[in-house]
Amino acid sequence: MEKTTQHTQSQLTKVVFYGPESTGKTTLAQTLAKQHQTQWVPEFAREYLQNKYNKTGKACEPSDIMPIAEGQMALENKQAKTSNQYLFCDTNLLETYVYARVYFPDKDFSRLKSLALSQDYDYYFLTDIDTPWEADDLRDKPNERQEMFNVFRNYLIKYDKNFCILSGDLEQRLSKVNKILQTNNYATFLKT
């Protein structure tokens, strides 16, 4: 896989679903891509870390963070080449950075932070924790959902990212996203 941490330049509207684990990001990205007949970008870390866990029984380590970031951007750039109008992203480098800070607070991730803050998305949708928890090999914070939501929200605020919170069932979330995309009226939904 091509090593890159830079966005491919395009005229696409880039939408990122951002937030804690098990909050519906993948389902939203897949469903909206299907509705809009375009591509979606899966979370590279999921496959990468599942493969690592299957082979070694080990979870994420600090040395995994930059390969995950590089893999995420390579996937995003690949999907952007065959997308039309919209590109729906299951995650982005800012999410990777947040997880790195949460799990490895004493490590230096300044390069990832710089890369994450240099990436532009047209819409940030913060996914709320009002979805059922789905356990798997990688998810490990079922009792810290509110704390993790707050961490993700605080990073968006800290780095002055405009965002909209998606709550409710799948249909409510899809309706809100589609209304915003159709009207391009993001401002009325910011931080709500």
TrEMBL record:
The keyword Lyase does not apply. The keyword Acetylation does not apply. It holds the Pfam family AAA_28. Keywords: ATP-binding, Nucleotide-binding. InterPro entries: NAD_biosynth-regulator, NadR/Ttd14_AAA_dom, P-loop_NTPase. It comes from the Bacteria. One of its GO terms (molecular function) is ATP binding. Residues 14-173 form the NadR/Ttd14 AAA domain. PANTHER family: NADR_TTD14 AAA DOMAIN-CONTAINING PROTEIN, TRIFUNCTIONAL NAD BIOSYNTHESIS/REGULATOR PROTEIN NADR. This is ATP-binding protein. It comes from Mesohalobacter halotolerans.
